[in-house]
Amino acid sequence: xxxxxxxxxxxxxxYGKLPIPPRDPFTLFVWEVLTAHxxxxxxxxxxxxxxxxxxxTPDAMWRAPQAKLEASVAVAGPYxxxxxxxxxxxxxxxxxxxxxxxxxxxxxxxxxKALKPFPRMGExxxxxxxxxxxxxxxxxxxxxxxxxxxxxxYGKPFTDFKRTxxxxxxxxxxxxxxxxxxxxxxxxxxxxxxxSTCTETDPHCAVCPLLSDxxxxxxxxxxxx
Length: 225
Known about the structure:
Layout: H1 3-15, H2 25-35, H3 40-52, H4 58-63, H5 66-74, H6 80-96, H7 100-103, H8 108-115, H9 123-132, H10 143-152, H11 161-173, H12 180-196, H13 215-221
């Protein structure tokens, strides 16, 4: 077992089984839009509200009454107008590109290009879609993953976040099995740890299950082993 696999096993024991993002490409796109500036509980409640009005396919959301769509999206929190606009734009992309689900499962350059028309789909979002909905073995790196990985000694921080993300991916790729399942687990647990324990300010190092393996944590707490 590699070091990162051992660390992930400790996180699994500490947090238990974590829910995974949707595997359906359209539902995952909706999940992405509703995740920003929200909480998991509110996001999931908004998705449940969309399910109740049967608006979780591109055609169904296209036909959904504006008032009902806005009410469902509002459950996720603020920025309702921006979220609805992003969803409408994404719906249009899905309806105009029926081959999109197959395209994102193809070669990586073409898959990334197919996702470019989507609003709010930065590199991290695109990589999450490719990992969870298209079975590409690659690691989405967001602020939470970046913070956790760098503190554990994987990758280097740069002023250019893309360089940071690239260095983290290279470092972890040397230890992770080259399978979508391994990369999904790595993303889920590193991101969750970054949000819950390895926070940006005042991280909870004293209760962290990775403290003995974390150079940054040992430095913050004064531990030598």
